Amino acid sequence: MLIRRLSNEELYKAVDLRIKCWNNDYRGVIPPNVMDREEELEFLISWINEKCDDIRRIYGVFDGEKFAGFVGASIAQKEDSDKGVELNYLFVKQEYRERGLGIKLIKAIVDEFKVYGFRELIVYNWHEVPSNKYYLYLGGKVKKQVIQSLKGQDTLVDVFVWDLVDIVKTLNNMLYARDVQHGGLHVKKKFDESVIITTECSDGDFDYVCNGLFKHNVMKTEGVLRKPGIDINLYLKTSDEETIGAILCDTFNYCLYIDVMWINERYRGKGYGRLLITEAERIARAYGCVFAHTCTFSYQSPWFYKKCGYEVFSILDEYPDGIKQYFLKKRF
């Protein structure tokens, strides 16, 4: 199953599914045939493409070429949450239900909006429809109830709320509780009489594997992997000690690897990036590093590294939407 943004040309799939679900799942709760297909499609295209301060997303889920469902979200109204995201749409085709697609679609939304600093998830849902049990199952709390009217018929609506951190944990736990065949991430397979393959692990298991690999690499390089073995982390700060950027680097095999490079948008274009990278390179050379390397995406800053003397030695162009990953190096 692939979850991705729907193009304008695909939005009719979302509209058709929504109308079908309203007429079937909401039968007896709201009046039948309340939506006009062309009006709904026109609204959805306008809604997702409107230039405004809102953040709006519509993701579809596909089983190969088959459309299976979709989710839509935007910034919640202030009256519902000061820092919330509202789940505007969540519909899955009947034949694809009970496969964890709802969990995955909601997760696609909350994972993105959580990065933007939102703290709550809001959902408006008809009180008497079956999907209400689903939101209760996900741990939603009814914040308030309102009356909405469709074609003169008043219907009770529950307004659910979740803490984003809590719902992310809940969704992840649900995915790892389901096996892969039922839309989850849990694996437990017998390889032979004495070995199994499983996703079940502890922090100790993770550390054991990482330490085992690290020990192997150090031994095979006769210790060179640990040379010079220092982290070079340089931060940009204002006179008020506000962090406005940084370059975070590892050193191994006598090379400098630039892992993270970021500067606050307000301070870009002032030469601070070049200042950071030059200082990191100076320290690395002083500790014996002979070259530096990094990777960056086409939507990030390959041009910046080229200006700083880095050359592209490989490009990975298999990502969707034309995204490319550039691998760059610079000899000292």
UniProtKB/TrEMBL annotation:
Keyword flag Chaperone: no
User: A Pfam family for this UniProt protein?
Assistant: Acetyltransf_1
Q: Which Gene3D superfamilies match?
A: 3.40.630.30
Q: Which UniProt keywords apply?
A: Acyltransferase, Transferase
Q: Which residues form the N-acetyltransferase domain?
A: 1-163, 196-332
- PANTHER family reported for this sequence: N-ALPHA-ACETYLTRANSFERASE (PTHR42919), N-ALPHA-ACETYLTRANSFERASE 50 (PTHR42919:SF8)
Q: What is the name listed in the Swiss-Prot or TrEMBL entry for this protein?
A: GNAT family N-acetyltransferase
Which source organism? Tissierella carlieri
